[in-house]
């Protein structure tokens, strides 16, 4: 998405834009791709994996973070944290 709009152009363009969005969010928080330790990836079509993977490696290099990649049309990914009581 760019400004809330779905990116047209197929899996390569969508993958590039998604990773660019991640980079922007990380940068705003003072981080970079080198700080990413895990990625969860959901693809509508498993046949897109090879094309997606080329884009992923082009950004993350030869030592990418841990990754899970599954085919799914619906995703819920939750991470919760509760600070210790003081």
From TrEMBL:
Any one Gene Ontology cellular component term annotated for this protein: cytosol
Top-level taxon: Bacteria
Cleaved signal peptide residues: none
InterPro entries associated with the record: RutC-like_sf, YjgF/YER057c/UK114
Pfam families xrefs: Ribonuc_L-PSP
GO molecular function, one term: deaminase activity
SUPFAM superfamilies: YjgF-like
Protein family (similarity comment): Belongs to the RutC family.
PANTHER family associated with the record: 2-IMINOBUTANOATE/2-IMINOPROPANOATE DEAMINASE RIDA (PTHR11803), PROTEIN HMF1-RELATED (PTHR11803:SF58)
Protein name (record): Reactive intermediate/imine deaminase
Organism placement in taxonomy: Bacteria, Pseudomonadati, Pseudomonadota, Betaproteobacteria, Burkholderiales
């Amino acid at each position: 998405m760019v400004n809330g709009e779905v990116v047209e152009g197929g899996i390569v363009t969508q993958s590039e834009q998604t990773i660019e969005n991640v980079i922007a969010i990380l940068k705003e928080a003072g981080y970079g791709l080198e700080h990413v330790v895990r990625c969860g990836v959901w693809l509508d079509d498993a046949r897109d994996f090879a094309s997606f993977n080329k884009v992923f490696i082009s950004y993350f290099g030869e030592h990418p973070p841990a990754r899970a990649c599954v085919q799914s049309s619906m995703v819920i990914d939750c991470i919760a944290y509760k600070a210790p009581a003081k």
